[in-house]
Amino acid sequence: xxxxxxxxxxxxxxxxxxxxxxxxxxxxxxxxxxxxxxxxxxxxxxxxxxxxxxxxxxxxxxxxxxxxxxxxxxxxxxxxxxxxxxxxxxxxxxxxxxxxxxxxxxxxxxxxxxxxxxxxxxxxxxxxxxxxxxxxxxxxxxxxxxxxxxxxxxxxxxxxxxxxxxxxxxxxxxxxxxxxxxxxxxxxxxxxxxxxxxxxxxxxxxxxxxxxxxxxxxxxxxxxxxxxxxxxxxxxxxxxxxxxxxxxxxxxxxxxxxxxxxxxxxxxxxxxxxxxxxxxxxxxxxxxxxxxxxxxxxxxxxxxxxxxxxxxxxxxxxxxxxxxxxxxxxxxxxxxxxxxxxxxxxxxxxxxxxxxxxxxxxxxxxxxxxxxxxxxxxxxxxxxxxxxxxxxxxxxxxxxxxxxxxxxxxxxxxxxxxxxxxxxxxxxxxxxxxxxxxxxxxxxxxxxxxxxxxxxxxxxxxxxxxxxxxxxxxxxxxxxxxxxxxxxxxxxxxxxxxxxxxxxxxxxxxxxxxxxxxxxxxxxxxxxxxxxxxxxxxxxxxxxxxxxxxxxxxxxxxxxxxxxxxxxxxxxxxxxxxxxxxxxxxxxxxxxxxxxxxxxxxxxxxxxxxxxxxxxxxxxxxxxxxxxxxxxxxxxxxxxxxxxxxxxxxxxxxxxxxxxxxxxxxxxxxxxxxxxxxxxxxxxxxxxxxxxxxxxxxxxxxxxxxxxxxxxxxxxxxxxxxxxxxxxxxxxxxxxxxxxxxxxxxxxxxxxxxxxxxxxxxxxxxxxxxxxxxxxxxxxxxxxxxxxxxxxxxxxxxxxxxxxxxxxxxxxxxxxxxxxxxxxxxxxxxxxxxxxxxxxxxxxxxxxxxxxxxxxxxxxxxxxxxxxxxxxxxxxxxxxxxxxxxxxxxxxx
Length: 893
Known about the structure:
By secondary structure, the chain is of the alpha/beta class. Strand 7 (190-194), helix 9 (203-210) and strand 8 form a beta-alpha-beta unit. Helix 1 (2-8) packs across helix 5, helix 5 (75-90) packs across helix 6 and helix 12 (351-373) packs across helix 14. The longest helix is centred in the middle third of the chain and has 23 residues, at 351-373. The two termini are 38 Å apart.
């Protein structure tokens, strides 16, 4: 993943940490052999390679960098995996995950627990991952002394005061007679800052973080307030394209008379001679507080634009065309160029009416989703954020609660043939989470909301239960300040009934519902690329107040301006601020005859395809049964061994006397075979039951359930992959990869080889030594049968259900056949280079690589050139031999 590689490459060229260079007086630390200039050069290279615009890179000569990832795209797993990768490659072992709050802290631990097994399988590393707890100082000592991978999760509140245990100087459990924070600082940890904009860049926080003497700081967020060395950006457009987050529906509520969607009121009119000016109350941007406030404007006149005067882009269509006093109602009127008009003494917005409509549409969308998703085992939730608890909890007039119950009954009847819900059902459908003061009273204060551990625990502990059909709660009311705690994948609707707003906070609140949903088994449910829009499962509906509309407009405009419509990132303009990296230019061969040959080749391979999969469930079950029947588990044995002691003073000289093995019966923890296989393979319970019922070696399971489970899951996944490839069908489309080739340059490029003779460019890139050797041989002037070849550009991709496939080389050969002695013919080949010539070589190829190659065979078959796709190929000579055989057997295309 690019985000991980980008961080790892910061330390490119660094000497690996070992006991000899990273251990001192019982402290095992992070050390870096690179100079500040070398790190800075690496950072500039990474930023350039990732296409981050100069204006968005915020280059600084500091050991501090940003990774920008849209909410819901796996940020936590990304930085945890980054720690594994840095430990594996460089031996960097000390990491502190710095979090702003309890729910984010819990989310880090939950993510690690969910992916611990997969990370262990991939890296063969067993890290010590723990939450800092002042009552478990021994874990802190292990962190300081161990050379194993250590990841400690720490909140800012744990160490940002002299009174914290980490900073106390008179404790008996100090390490080397130093306060714990000073001991930690000697390890020079890499600090992974999760949502740093949540209080980590205040002057106080920066001072305390600096006391940890970090080797490097890495910032992870979708909405960085402070940006430094932006290495990587996973933009909303890219997240959408990759299907990593839900699609977004913004359902705007405006009044029926279609006046301004944002509040506008006439506050004061100044009429002097013929010049009339007006002061309006409107939503103004308070720059110092970073939020909008409903306040009075300065004096405005004809032709003034409200967006310019208020700093609020939502008013961009509001330019004053006329200010006048009506002879009919004797009131001042302000008319705008968009046709809207406001009258003195009236407001353009009735908040209770707007709230009622917001709730009505939220509930309507909820019931539409409910009817669509329940049959698929998915429970949908809707969130309603408010900023005044009294609007829901007041014993006198809980207006939002009353409006909700009124609209719930109305919409429920629409979806149930006029039937009204029972009062108890209306109450049961609601859940609420509001913070309390120490006196037990509900509060609106944001600081109290952030610090209220009880309410966060309640949200976190109930999060999984809310996903179950057993819980009747479907609508959750919460304080907008608690938005960061609601990271639930099955949120399909969000309404904000606030009386004030902040752009940044709203983006975070929208993020609460962006994650891909899960079913009753806890499995992610994705939409395929071919799913029609009206049938897509993962769609989040936002029912906004004014701020959401403001955000949606500016958000979309910002990214379209920055990355282009559709998320196509423009080529960056880049100026190096340090040592200039080596720039390599790849020049296209412009010879007319050569380019004609290349164009003919391209015409053959340029056609795009789509695929469909017609999975045969019964065949999958049959093959799974066959595969599982092959499982053989070694018996649990106990061995009795006798060693005769000949010298009590030297037991090493004991004499072997004999041994005997016994088959024992081990006690294992109980396993739900159906549940675990279903969860790990994605098969439904019915299919798993059929597989288990069909196998004839249940006795093997009894021998060792965990081992049997592991082998069963592996074998079923392999069958799934094989069936996926077997059942895929490709169809050519009318679309093609355009013939767009020209000179290009790459900075810091080292993996290239000169190809002046037969290469499409005078140099060829390569991704492995095998590719380098292939290009070298293909370009030899003695290989006269090669007319031209190229390393396929990265944008040439073949879609497969297990990831896009990018073939390596295209080669054009020419031969003179006996049947046509006076005519040379061209033959067009696509070649995949691997460390083997055998498609079934499991040591050289992963199952997914094999699967993608087999999919590519079907892609090229749909184009009519299956025989001319050669994969896998290890060496050029092997390719030539296979190509000659193909030419002899098949002739030309």
